[in-house]
């Protein structure tokens, strides 16, 4: 009796220890999350991304509108003192304000140029061919220059009778509450500064790819520990009725399980990028002469370890969470499609802008054709007061995580942490902005996205798209026989179709 039990345990360890289940090396949308499936299925997330989405996203992210991201890299960590020291020459970034097209340097008020709904309804097919809108934008930009000049002249009078800017503490609290309501703060999932704030600079993301930087040790450990431990959800009998019988993340309510998958997927996508673009430094004996002789390589061993059960039984599930975020942001893009179709993506370069609009439309067409989207309508349901409280807790937790990104000491790591949390926060804003308890529900015309939000969303989606493509590359390295079997299955399907005809 003892030997069969030991044999069964051994078999289970082999199955659980693998990143991919035998015969089911790809991933598909399940009832609630993502499940492994046969790669020969036509609706795998892998096939959608690798065959239809990936190239279109990469093409789009090379456009001027999407590669320049405005960010404040000098914000201090609000939770602890940090040193901001790079361990290698791979973690630094450079600002590129002078390289940004003039059309993108306009104020945020006209940064996302849109046609009016009246103009769009007149002729849907020719919505990009009207030069009137561009003329209006150019005139608005000129008016802003005039306004800035007028404001500078008016400042001279402040020396004679300066304004009293003091406020009492209770007045400040009251005004903060008013701003919270008026600005729709409850629909903001990230703490992001206005484009015109001091310290905001443009960064060319195409020149700062996410990859290995040498950032390791106590600093990143402290960041992730703070994210997982201090900002995790605690069990609440009001929401988590199954926690007593299943005391784990699976015993939490749907919304809290989704939140955990988002954070886990973010962490996992970063790990995949580091493993896919890992760096082997030159031998120390070469000294400064060998500083440029390091090599970049694909670290399959690292991928296998992180997403197997070598360090944690959750390894395989973490890999699935990357696909989960991909589906969530895919759904956000689908939901925002009518909004994005009315954008001019204006940079001042007519040919570039036309190409960008065409590339966006091509991407949206592929997204519309996919049937297995994330369903946000299942979240924050039930008793109104409970749903509102749970949604606010969800939002505030995510805002806090976006603030923690300012505690990352490596510049390039901090940059991509801010971009990806900003993009994910934008996706959540899009998905949940029309709920009954949303600030925008009463007036849908108020819903808007800044250029930086659109850039962050597409860049974030691009990172998960790249991660899924890299998963396929690792899969080929680890299971070459599985890829051969998949090819045979495809060939047999093709042959069977020919016979049927």
UniProtKB/TrEMBL annotation:
Cleavable signal peptide: 1-18
Residues annotated as binding FAD: 211, 213, 224, 264, 267, 306
Active site: 410 (nucleophile), 413
Molecular function terms from GO: FAD binding; protein-disulfide reductase activity; thiol oxidase activity
GO biological process: protein folding in endoplasmic reticulum
Localization per Swiss-Prot or TrEMBL: Endoplasmic reticulum membrane
Record GO cellular component, one term: endoplasmic reticulum membrane
Principal location class: endoplasmic reticulum
Record's keyword terms, sorted: Disulfide bond, Electron transport, Endoplasmic reticulum, FAD, Flavoprotein, Glycoprotein, Membrane, Oxidoreductase, Redox-active center, Signal, Transport
Disulfide topology: 86-91, 410-413
Subunit structure, interactors included: May function both as a monomer and a homodimer.
Protein's recorded name: Protein CBR-ERO-1
């Amino acid at each position: 009796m003892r030997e069969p039990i030991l044999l069964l345990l051994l078999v289970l360890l082999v199955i659980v220890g693998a990143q991919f289940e035998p015969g089911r090396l790809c991933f598909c949308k399940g009832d609630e999350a993502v499940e492994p499936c046969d790669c020969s299925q036509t609706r795998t997330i892998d096939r959608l991304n690798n065959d239809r989405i990936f190239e279109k996203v990469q093409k789009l992210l090379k456009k001027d509108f999407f590669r320049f991201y405005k960010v404040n890299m000098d914000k201090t960590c609000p939770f602890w003192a940090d040193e901001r020291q790079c361990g290698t020459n791979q973690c630094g970034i450079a600002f590129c304000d002078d390289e940004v097209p003039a059309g993108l340097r306009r104020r945020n008020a006209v940064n996302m140029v849109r046609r009016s709904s009246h103009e769009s309804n007149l002729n849907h097919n020719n919505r990009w061919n009207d030069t009137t809108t561009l003329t209006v934008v150019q005139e608005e930009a000129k008016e802003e220059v005039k306004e800035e000049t007028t404001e500078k002249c008016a400042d001279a009078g402040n020396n004679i009778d300066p304004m009293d800017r003091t406020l009492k503490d209770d007045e400040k609290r009251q005004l903060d509450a008013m701003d919270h309501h008026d600005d729709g703060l409850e629909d903001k999932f990230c703490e992001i500064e206005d484009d015109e704030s001091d310290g905001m600079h443009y960064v060319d993301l195409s020149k700062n790819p996410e990859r290995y930087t040498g950032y390791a040790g106590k600093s990143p450990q402290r960041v992730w520990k703070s994210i997982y431990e201090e900002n995790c959800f605690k069990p609440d009998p009001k929401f988590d009725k199954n926690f007593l019988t299943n005391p784990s993340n699976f015993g939490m309510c749907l919304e809290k399980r989704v939140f955990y998958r988002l954070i886990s997927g973010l962490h996992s996508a970063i790990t995949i990028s580091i493993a896919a673009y890992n760096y082997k430094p030159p031998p120390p004996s070469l000294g400064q002469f060998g500083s440029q002789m390091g090599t970049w390589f694909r670290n399959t061993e690292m991928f296998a370890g992180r997403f197997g059960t070598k360090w944690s039984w959750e390894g395989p599930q973490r890999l699935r969470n990357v696909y989960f975020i991909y589906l969530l942001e895919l759904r956000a893009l689908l939901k925002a499609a009518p909004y994005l179709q009315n954008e001019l993506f204006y940079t001042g370069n007519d040919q570039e802008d036309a190409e960008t609009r065409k590339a966006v439309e091509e991407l949206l067409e592929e997204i519309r054709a996919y049937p297995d989207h994330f369903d946000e309508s299942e979240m924050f349901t039930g008793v109104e007061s409970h749903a509102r409280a749970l949604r606010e807790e969800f939002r505030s937790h995510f805002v806090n995580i976006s603030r923690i990104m300012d505690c990352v000491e490596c510049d390039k790591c901090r940059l991509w942490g801010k971009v990806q949390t900003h993009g994910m926060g934008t996706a959540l804003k899009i998905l949940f902005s029309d709920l009954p308890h949303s600030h925008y529900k009463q007036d849908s015309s108020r819903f808007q996205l800044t250029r930086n939000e659109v850039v962050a969303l597409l860049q974030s989606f691009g990172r998960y798209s790249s991660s899924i493509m890299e998963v396929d590359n690792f899969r080929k390295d680890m299971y070459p026989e599985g890829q051969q079997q998949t090819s045979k299955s495809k060939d047999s399907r093709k042959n069977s179709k020919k016979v049927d005809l």
